[in-house]
Design goal:
It contains 21 helices and five strands. The radius of gyration is 31 Å and the shape is elongated. With 506 residues, it is mostly helical. The strands form two sheets. Strands 2-3 form a two-stranded antiparallel sheet. A two-stranded antiparallel sheet has the order 4-5. Strand 2 and strand 3 form a beta hairpin.
């Protein structure tokens, strides 16, 4: 049997980057657990727990990376014990026998449970709980994943900002209700996309800045077991968590924890990432509509096949994939909301299996979307002639308000002018729809003596740039060198300048 004979997640296999997959890999997870057990032992030793010897610490330090052989032992232990953290602890005891008596002292599985065979520790002393190791590890993984995706998101925003500035003055037809509306510039539309993503950047930065550690809190968050270990010295317990935060790279622990950190943390992160998923779908849907109108397109390889049957087709495959993956991501926060609200009192285990799936998946989805968005936004192809052609089909209607005002200035009744324009416009639309002809409203106006006072002005009133208002200025104010968007991206400048456009695996 090979890998081709077993199911493999397309999200990992086809779409996400190696960097994000490494963060959530089994080896990274297991090795991080071992780091957490080492950090706990080092901190407890520093605070006077003399049972933790130099030899024990060295045994832990020498076995931080979980080997392939160790994974085989772990799998066999879990089949016996039906407890993943315990299987890892038993395996680590075999790899580092000198540390067998001190692994996981005072921890639950959210940090770990002492298995000591030689060093007798009471059940209450085994206080970091399974959640202590798993939860602290999950917080590390999510922090690292957030740090990975933020610069990627900044680069996509930068791509759109550059595009917006380039086309800030190019008039294009706007749409409301997906019907032709007052023109804007193509750059103004891209600036709106950039602003939506900038809001996502702010939200993700916010949840990252507020992320804390669980630390060593005990089986239900009361720290009672550590009170026993440190003989009631509360200052040592506080210092223990300070040391653990320093080692893990967090500023502080959450003030309140139960057997786990509150699943509200997961929900806050999921909400931010889900919102980004919605933005991705929104942008890609616009691109798909505009590709249909042939005014712009996503990048295509020369050998890319659009359809197995219709050889002429060139489909917006990347944008469609963005919509597909984004739909999944934008709805994943529902799972986290249910998991949070379904927790009973100090903890129930029905959060475990779903979090194993959902936490990695929401980050892999985000990463995959950013790869696609970077590729698309850095290679959008614009067709100005098609944009002008589309605009000219509707521009006579857009000019009617200005025509009415010009007639009023010539002394014509506004109501009379409005009614005459209404009649000719309806005739034009009827002919266009019935006969498939082009918009000839201006020609009709030029043949109607009612409009003779402004005949000489008509051609000059049809310059598309007269209808886009302050679009170019708006783009410059937002995306320009002194605009707020540039300021938001400043911290990511080195990454943006040094990173090539993402390459799709498929």
């Amino acid at each position: 049997m090979t890998k081709h004979d077993e199911y493999e997640s397309p999200l990992a296999h086809r779409y996400a980057s190696r960097e994000i997959k490494r963060i959530f890999s089994p080896r990274e997870r297991a090795s991080t657990w071992r780091k957490l057990w080492l950090w706990l032992a080092e901190a407890e030793r520093e605070l006077g727990l003399t049972q933790i010897t130099d030899k024990a610490l060295e045994g832990l330090r020498s076995n931080l990376l979980v080997s392939d052989e160790a994974f085989q032992v772990i799998a066999e232990e879990e089949r016996i014990r039906r407890h993943d953290v315990m299987s890892h602890i038993f395996t680590l005891e075999k790899d580092a026998p000198d540390a067998a008596g001190i692994i996981h002292i005072g921890a639950t599985s959210c940090y770990g449970t002492c298995l000591s065979h030689d060093f007798k520790v009471s059940a209450r002393e085994s206080l970091l709980s399974v959640s202590a190791v798993t939860d602290n590890a999950d917080l590390i993984f999510m922090r690292d994943a957030l740090r990975l995706i933020l610069p990627k998101l900044a680069k996509v925003i930068h791509n759109l900002s550059t595009f917006a500035l380039k086309f800030k003055g190019l008039p294009t037809l706007a749409f409301t209700h997906y019907q032709a509306a007052q023109p804007i510039s193509l750059g103004r539309r891209a600036a709106q996309w950039a602003q939506d993503l900038a809001m996502d950047l702010e939200d993700i930065e916010y949840v990252l800045a507020g992320l804390k550690f669980r630390g060593a809190q005990g089986t239900t968050g009361s720290q009672a077991s550590f009170m026993e270990i440190f003989h009631g010295d509360t200052a040592k317990i506080d210092r223990l968590n300070e040391i653990l935060c320093e080692k893990a790279g967090f500023e502080a622990c959450y003030d309140i924890s139960t057997q786990t950190y509150t699943r509200k943390v997961d929900l806050r992160i999921a909400n931010a990432l889900s919102a980004f998923g919605a933005s991705a779908v929104r942008i890609a849907t616009d691109i798909r509509h505009l590709a249909h109108d042939k005014v712009l397109d996503e990048p295509h390889e020369a050998t890319q096949t659009g359809s197995s049957a219709m050889a002429f087709k060139s489909n917006p495959m990347r944008s469609e994939r963005i919509c597909s993956l984004g739909r999944k991501l934008s709805n994943i926060s529902t799972n986290f909301s249910s998991t949070f609200s379904s927790q009973w009192l100090e903890r129930t285990l029905d959060d475990s299996a779903i979090r194993r799936i959902d936490i990695p998946e929401m980050f892999l989805l985000t990463d995959a979307l950013l790869i696609l968005l970077d590729d698309v936004t850095n290679g959008i192809v614009v067709f100005p002639a098609m944009i002008r052609s589309q605009l000219e089909e509707e521009l006579p209607f857009m000019a009617t308000e200005n025509i009415i005002m010009k007639l009023v200035h010539k002394g014509v009744s506004r109501q009379d002018a409005h009614e005459r324009i209404r009649v000719l416009s309806r005739q034009t639309v009827e002919t266009m729809k019935t006969n498939g002809t082009k918009n000839d409203l201006i020609e009709r106006i030029k043949k109607d003596d009612f409009f003779k006072p402004i005949w000489d002005d008509l051609d000059g009133m049809l310059d598309p740039k007269l209808f886009i208002g302050r679009s170019a200025e708006i783009v410059e104010k937002y995306c320009g060198s002194s605009g707020p968007l540039t300021g938001k991206l400043e911290k990511y400048k080195d990454y943006i300048d040094s990173t090539a456009t993402a390459t799709l695996a498929v």
